[in-house]
Amino acid sequence: MTPYPDLDAVLGHFVDALQSTLADRLVGAYLQGSFAVGDFDEHSDCDFIVVTRTELDDEDVTRLQRIHGEVFDLPAEWAKHLEGSYFPAETLRRVGTVGMPLWYLDHGSRSLARSNHCNTLLVRAVLREHGVRLAGPAPRELLAPVTADALRREIQQVMQSWGREILDDSEPYRNHFYQGYLVLNYARMLHDLHEGRPGSKRAGAEWAKAALAIEWRDLIDRAWSTRPNPAVSVRRPPHAADFERTLAFVQLCMREADKFQSR
Q1: Which label site among 36, 93, 104, 137 has the fewest CB atoms less than 10 Å from its CB?
Q2: Are 61 and 81 in the same domain?
Q3: How far is CA 175 from CA 119, 159, 236, 251, in A?
Q4: Same domain, yes or no, for 135 and 154?
Q5: pLDDT one-digit tens code per residue, 11-25
Q6: Domain around 137
């Protein structure tokens, strides 16, 4: 499933527990995110999608909460780096359900909560085109293609709305982890906007270094150093000058997204 035996063991335990608990109500389980687009390393989180035949009822959620607690306690560091959502099959098929809350496991959490974090066109596009099957049918059988225009509209909206949030109140992001996270994610989103399809952070960073002014190259290169040990780096202060440049980089990417929209 992955190049990491410890992670494969965690995923095997997780899928076995899903199959035992949900039985024929489990449609499939998949990896998306970095493990799907090929941008993973030992510092990545592991993004999953579970598809069920129907909405989860209270009893299902109680059992799944127990499963995620057990998985979190497995003697492997990867067990603490799963992140993903549960999609009812009909919700996944219908584009009109984008943004609806799903049962979601946050990175570093041991329990599910309601969130729309994964319910995006981007996740659907990655799942359909690149999803790694852990159980169930090929993901292409579960949802229609996401058009380039629809994906671009979503990316533009995210770049602008998230950017305004960051610039209006940067304090929650003023740490070593987010300094790099913002740079790499905005480079990736701007690249995806130009390509009209989902790509990786690595591809986005290399594209941005070539497409944008040379003055940003060192900031993009240093962003990779913020990725190891996010639980530690999120508590470290950023390099002051780099963080101010990061905010300027977000503004630059927002302006570039506006230019693309006006074409």
Answers
A1: 137
A2: yes
A3: 27, 20, 6, 18
A4: no
A5: 999 999 999 999 999
A6: 5-141
